Structures are given as structure tokens and as C-alpha cells.
Amino acid sequence: MKPEPSRAVENAAERRRFEEQVAWKEVDQLHAATLQFAGKCLELKKLCVALCAALVVWMADKDIRFIECAVVALALLAFFWLADAQNFYYQRKTRRGIAAALGRARLARGLGNSVSPLGLEKDAVGSVLSSLLNTSQLFYFLVGVVVLVALALTHHA
Fold first, then answer.
1. 41 touches 136 (CB < 8 A)
2. What is the pTM of this model?
3. Residue 26 burial (10 A CB sphere; 0-12, 13-18, 19+)
4. Distance between CA atoms of 154 and 46, rounded to whole angstroms?
């Protein structure tokens, strides 16, 4: 026995409402995760500056050659740069998830699915490279220059 047409329409409408609610819950969760990743990027940058400043001050009185100081400082910067790039990668990935969930919510509501540039999936290598080399990562280059100049001034190479 087939369900009556009005009941089938009600079931389809309930299913669309449920799919839309699930999509919005997913958007909320991904948005919270994105904010956490962004906050971690900022905290890493603050910690990096503090540690680099402490390192320059500590190495200024030591009888350590400039090249050794520079290698230690650049290794520290590389560590923070890679950690920050990883957070940036996952932040971008959660934003793509938000775009996909918003597309599902639009489809559930019957509005079609507009493609957001955030929702376009990049290849894995391109995504990793864009996380490693972006304007946010320019910060580490600038800190590196400042640290090397400060070390050079204190060590008289």
C-alpha cells in the first residue's frame, strides 16, 4: 500500500528541514573550530616574538659565534612557521567545510547551490604550499630579519 501523497510531501518537507538543521549545526561547529585555529595562529605569533626576543637578549652576553646564534634563531623561527602553517591549513580546510555545509543547507531549502570560491577544493600540494607561503607567513620573515640584525649588532660578526 502506497502512502498517501500529502503524507509523502510532509515526509519530504521534514527530511529537508532535518537536512537543513544538520547543515546549520555543522556550520556552527566548523565556525567555532575555525575561530580556534585563528586564535592559535595569533598565540603562536605572540609566543614566537617573545621567545625570539628572549633568545636575542640571552645570546647577547654569551660567547657564542654569530653563525651559531643565527642558526638557533632561524631553527626556532622555522618551528613556529611550520606550526602556524599547519594551523592555517586546517583553518582553510574548515572554511571549505563551512562553504560545503552552507551549500547543503541551500539545497535542503530548495535554493540551489551557489559555488563559493572558498568551497572550491584545491589539490593537496597547492593547499599545503598556499598554507606555507601566504601573507600571514610574511610575519616570520620579518621577525627573522629583525632577529638577525639584532644578533649582528650584539655580536659584531
1. yes
2. 0.70
3. middle
4. 23
> Are 64 and 154 in contact, with CB atoms under 8 Å apart?
no
For 71, the grid coordinates are: 642558526
pLDDT classification of 5: cutoffs 50, 70, 90: low
Q: At what angle do helices 138-155 and 66-109 cross, to 10 degrees?
A: 170
Burial 32-42 (b: 16+ CB within 10 A, else e): ebbeebeebbe
Per residue in 22-47, pLDDT (tens digit) is: 878 888 888 888 888 888 888 988 99
Q: Which residue has the cell 650584539?
A: 154
Position 156: which residue type? Answer: H
Q: Write the CB contacts of 94 (distance below 8 Å, at least 6 apart in sequence).
A: 30, 31, 33, 34, 37
What is the phi/psi pair of residue 40, to 5°? -65, -35
Question: 156: which DSSP letter?
Answer: T
- Confidence tier at 14 by pLDDT (50, 70, 90): confident
Cβ atoms within 10 Å, residue 139: 18
Cβ contact 23:102 at 8 Å: yes
CA distances to 35, 73, 75, 130 from 31, rounded to whole Å, are 6, 35, 33, 21
